[in-house]
Write a structure and sequence with these properties.
Blueprint lengths: L8 H10 L3 H7 L30 E3 L6 H13 L2 E5 L5 H15 L3 H4 L15 E4 L13 E6 L14 H24 L11 H5 L1 E9 L11 E4 L5 E6 L5 E4 L6 E3 L7 E5 L1 H6 L9 E3 L7 E9 L5 E2 L3 H4 L10 E2 H11 L13
Parallel strand pairs: 1-2
Antiparallel strand pairs: 2-10, 3-4, 4-5, 5-12, 6-11, 7-10, 7-12, 8-9, 8-11, 13-14
Bound molecules: N-oxalylglycine and nickel (II) ion (NI).
The site of N-oxalylglycine has 11 residues, from strand 5, strand 7, strand 11 and strand 12.
Family: Belongs to the iron/ascorbate-dependent oxidoreductase family.
Keywords: Iron, Metal-binding, Oxidoreductase, Vitamin C
Organism: Solanum pennellii (Tomato)
């Protein structure tokens, strides 16, 4: 195959997205030349020189979750890094390994099977199953080097519509991960003097949840493509399981330095999203991250996005402003924030401006 096969944008979008061959479909065709549409502009790539081996994000052992020091390290990591890994979190390794195997099974299906889950667009409040390739706006010229499937995990979602390859494994993971997410949020809220995380706060902090499975096919030239462009999550928090391939990077503290989130067997990465940064009036940080792809291995990652309900109003907690602290953000409807984020896909931290006073 040569790049000339996909001269027009429509051709490649049709093959990769609409026909659900995915980026994986390109690779399966023994791709030798990367199509122009997959070559990222320089500002979206990750150069080797930007990778910083000196800084690292913290790993927190949750074996003694009730220990005050453990709680403090979670709050501190959320303040300083916005990104950390957790070990001994209680989710059995088998649940995670099964998730990974299910992911391979699904993405290895022929396109005719995957196309059943293709959906053109996804709007606020809708939580269906959706397969996409190279997430981006339909008119986006540059495709990310990944295929994904989203499972909406809310009571109104019918998991019978999920693929049989992923259904049970995603449900099992959700069963274990939901109480863990709640415990983490409880601790994070305590760090903001919000001490009563009762049922009334659940819609605001974990009203909608979605589990994505990302499949990053191997790429003949990872230096000119990107698996996931640098972005922040809109969530309150995101829990991420990754396999042992590596490739997830987080922006460091020195500007344009990027820190590798080293895979640790059985660990989960946790990051603060924009919604919790807004609610915390900037005490907790939603940090940019991106994914570089591997030249020889397909990588699996499974983020669980813990979001507010779409009809929630998000803004700094009143507890934050009690002692005269100035609010950095106004209150906005979460669905408006979501729509702004996904319509505009602002780069870096620009999306937060939408909620700034
Ligand atoms: C995401 C994301 C990281 C990864 O899907 O929002 O940041 O490692 N994924 O796949
Ligand atoms: Ni992300």
């Amino acid at each position: 195959m040569t790049s000339s096969k996909f001269e027009s944008n429509d051709d490649i979008l049709d093959f990769v997205i609409k026909k659900a061959n995915g980026i994986k479909g390109l690779v399966d065709k023994s791709l030798e030349i990367i199509p122009n549409q997959c070559i990222q502009p320089k500002e979206h790539r990750l150069e080797k020189s930007q990778i910083d081996n000196q800084e690292s994000i913290p790993t927190i052992d949750l074996s003694n979750f009730d220990d005050l020091n453990v709680k403090k390290s979670i709050q501190e990591a959320a303040r300083k890094w916005g990104f950390f890994q957790i070990i001994n979190h209680g989710i059995p390794i088998k649940v995670l390994e099964d998730l990974k195997d299910a992911a391979h099974k699904f993405f290895e299906l022929p396109a005719e099977e995957k196309v059943k889950y293709y959906k053109e667009s996804y709007s606020a409040g809708e939580s269906v199953l959706m397969f996409w390739s190279a997430i981006g706006d339909k008119n986006e010229k540059f495709l990310e080097w990944r295929d994904s499937i989203k499972h909406g995990c809310n009571p109104e979602n019918d998991s019978n519509l999920w693929p049989s390859q992923t259904r049970n494994q995603v449900l099992e993971y959700q069963k274990w991960a939901t109480p863990l997410a709640k415990k983490l949020l409880e601790v994070l809220l305590k760090g903001l003097n919000v001490n009563d995380f009762d049922e009334s706060l659940e819609p605001l902090l974990m009203g909608t949840m979605a589990i994505n499975i990302n499949y990053y096919p191997p790429c003949p030239d990872p230096s000119i493509t990107i698996g996931a462009r640098r972005h922040c999550d809109v969530s309150c928090i995101t829990l991420l399981f990754q396999d042992d391939t590596g490739g997830l990077y987080v922006r460091g503290t020195k500007g344009d330095n990027w820190i590798h989130v080293k895979p640790i067997k059985g660990a989960l990465a946790v990051n603060i999203g924009d919604s919790l940064q807004i609610m915390s009036n900037d005490r907790y940080k939603s940090i940019e991250h991106c994914v570089a792809v591997d030249s020889s291995r397909a990588r699996i990652s499974v983020p669980l996005f813990v979001n507010p309900c779409f009809d929630s109003v998000i803004g700094p907690f009143s507890q934050m402003l009690k002692d005269g602290e100035k609010p950095v953000y106004k209150h906005v409807l979460f669905s408006d924030y979501w729509n702004h984020f996904f319509r505009k896909r602002p780069s870096g931290k620009a999306s937060l401006d939408f909620a700034k006073i």
